[in-house]
Design brief:
By secondary structure, the protein is an alpha/beta fold. Helices cover 11% and strands 28% of the residues. Helix 2 links the parallel strand 1 and strand 2.
Length: 456
């Protein structure tokens, strides 16, 4: 099996010169944090909680750490697999940093589970979530997201791997209509959520979801705002890369969408869901994204499709869409014959401060090296998915057993030494993460990142 020597460190070095997202403070959550949540403190200044075993719950467990009250930084003195036996981790206590980068190799992989964030000021980095059907019969009701926010705010989800979800792989959700005004609706659902440098792949299609086919990338629910997708990879999902619902506001920069099935990016305000409420125009700003067709991609699939009844304000720059043979695909399409329309704007509708925006021709090379959990210490499943993306291979699947099985790594242990880490950002003072060996090779960087590193 190949191993990518590839480096979160590269992304960090390339982004350290970026300006903070706002001018009020100069302390980002970590070097390279972007979006409206870039300066969330997470658990900064709180207690250090050590995960010392791989148990599903109880003292020393991951679940106990995230359920603790008060500001806290969760670190790991163990590496391996945590089996949650088809229960979802719910994060309800705010001011939390989950620092998966502190775990000894092979890092932390959660299986048979998903994560729901139902609070505010949360940072999650370098965790793998492999949900899977776990042998459940088709349409039997096990329908977990790999990751979702639920009426959460000020959340950063960075450098994680989400695969084999039964519902979406990574989403921002919540109630549509809390209160009586648009402002109250938006305050009552998820807002200011950044997804950066993640891998969201192989959502299970014909599996245990009660609705039947449900291979989905990301759902951005009605009236959510401040949602950012930056340098992520979606691969082998039927739809939702992302699906942006009515009135939501989304920024997409330098993402790669590979082998979408029926839809890549799409927008849909559904009249059936908005009955009795005035429509709110949605917003998508898309800059430097790449959509590449694969084995399962519909012929002629557009980059962006609109359905439903509500209009969409759209700003696009330097996005490209091609089929599996490199033939150019259309930017726009529609499903449903309604009055909904795409209104093209002349300027971005969300700020891009702090982002190093690559030309679309550099995106694929860059994100294949940096997306996903622990890019310096990848596991076999991430390596398989990323190499297949690079080679134009792979398929949408119905069950994790179609391609692999749940991992069963031998547990490892190593003490967490506070003096070795910058506790404000949870970056190693040495510049190297647990399990990282050797310097970052120059050829691992995109031309733009290489120039930034060498000062050219």
């Amino acid at each position: 099996m190949f191993k990518l020597i590839a480096p979160a460190l590269a992304a960090t070095l390339a982004l350290m010169s970026a300006a903070p997202a706002t001018a009020q403070t100069t302390v980002p959550a970590f070097p390279g944090a972007v979006g409206p949540a870039a300066e969330t403190p997470g658990g900064r200044g709180g207690q250090i909680i050590r995960v010392t075993n791989l148990n599903a719950d109880g003292p020393g467990s991951f679940k106990a750490a995230v359920e603790a009250k008060g500001p806290r930084i969760v670190v790991f003195e163990v590496g391996g697999v945590i089996d949650l036996a088809r229960t979802t981790i719910e994060i309800r206590e705010p001011y939390l940093t989950i620092a998966g980068q502190t775990a000894p190799s092979p890092g932390i992989t959660l299986i048979k589970t998903g994560i729901d964030v139902r609070t505010h000021d949360v940072i999650i980095r370098h965790i793998r979530v492999r949900t899977g059907a776990d042998g459940q019969p088709k349409r039997s009701g096990w329908e977990a997201d790999a990751f979702s926010t639920v009426a959460a705010r000020n959340v950063i989800v960075d450098h994680n791997s989400f695969t084999w979800a039964i519902d979406e792989n990574m989403s921002a959700s919540g109630p549509r209509f809390t209160g009586n005004t648009v402002e109250e609706w938006r305050a009552g659902t998820s807002r200011n959520v950044t997804f950066s440098n993640n891998l969201a792949a192989e959502g299970l299609a014909d599996s245990s979801h009660p609705k039947g086919e449900h291979s989905k990338g990301s759902l951005i629910h009605d009236n959510t705002t401040g949602i950012v997708f930056y340098r992520n990879i979606w691969a082998h999902n039927v739809e939702r890369h992302p699906l942006v619902k009515g009135g939501a506001q989304v920024l997409m920069v330098n993402n790669l969408i590979y082998n979408p099935g029926h839809r890549a990016v799409h927008y849909n305000l559904m009249a059936l869901e908005w009955a009795g409420h005035p429509y709110v125009t949605g917003e998508i700003t898309a800059i430097g994204n790449v959509m590449r067709g694969g084995n399962d991609t519909n012929e002629g699939l557009p980059f962006l499709m609109i359905g439903g009844d509500g209009d969409l304000n759209y700003y696009g720059k330097d996005n490209r869409a091609v089929d599996r043979h490199g033939v150019k695909l259309p930017m726009f399409g529609r499903y449903g014959e309604t009055r909904a329309k795409i209104i093209e704007k002349k300027a971005p509708m969300m700020p891009t401060a702090g982002m190093t925006i690559l030309p679309s021709g550099d995106v694929e090379t860059s994100v294949l090296y940096t997306a996903g959990a622990r890019p310096w210490d990848r596991d076999a499943e991430d390596i398989r998915v990323l190499f297949f993306v690079a080679e134009g291979r792979g398929d949408i699947i119905n069950d994790e057993k179609d391609v692999s099985a749940y991992p069963a790594y031998k547990p490892t242990k190593a003490p967490f030494v506070e003096a070795d880490w910058n506790l404000d950002t949870m970056e190693p003072k040495s510049g190297r993460y647990p399990g990282q060996t050797g310097p970052v090779p120059q050829e691992a960087l995109s031309p733009r990142d290489r120039d930034m590193r060498t000062g050219q």
